[in-house]
Amino acid sequence: MTAPAGLIPLPFFVYGTLRPGAYNHDRLLLGRTAAEEEARLPGALLYDGPGYPYAVPGAGTVAGTLVTAAPEAYGELLGALDRMEGDAGYERAAVEAVRLRDGGSVRAWTYLAAPETALGPLIPTGDWFRTGPRRPAPGVPRTP
Questions:
Q1: pLDDT digits (tens, 9 = 90+) for 12-70
Q2: pLDDT at 139 over 50
Q3: How far apart are CA 39 and CA 120, in angstroms?
Q4: How far is it, in rounded angstroms, from Cα 87 to Cα 85?
């Protein structure tokens, strides 16, 4: 399924359980991507949540992965991510300058905490994987 009419098929910047090696990556992204590469999102802060992190706009940088969906899987993947992330208190947003390892930048979708979301402690490194073991059990199928 291709992108819904009128929607530009942007890649996704993910920073939690959708990153390679994490539970939701294998559950939702495995076999549906054309490319995955390390990336950083400037202008955001990362907070710990109940088994997954939350990003919000702020004066920091969040570590993650830029995921490019396989064209034939884009629409289905977008819908699955919107449902999962919406249930967890996120809103999809287009971010303008996801930084790649080669120094380039791209526009991408990411999921940010909704304004009313109660956030846990700040993750000062901006990297959820560096804060301890982060492979939630199958009972915790959430986050970007």
A1: 999 999 999 888 999 999 999 999 999 999 999 999 988 889 999 999 999 999 999 99
A2: no
A3: 23
A4: 5
In a domain, 137, yes or no: no
CATH code of residue 85:
3.10.490.10
Helix (H, G, I), strand (E, B) or coil at 9: coil
Distances (CA, A) of 92 to 10, 108, 143: 12, 10, 12
Task: Evaluate whether 83 touches 91 at the Cβ level (below 8 Å).
Answer: no
Q: How far apart are CA 54 and CA 15, in angstroms?
A: 9
- Say how far apart CA 93 and CA 98 lie, in whole Å: 12
Report the pLDDT value the prediction gives residue 23, as an integer from 0 to 100: 87
Q: Which domain holds residue 39?
A: 12-115
- 90 has a pLDDT exceeding 80: yes
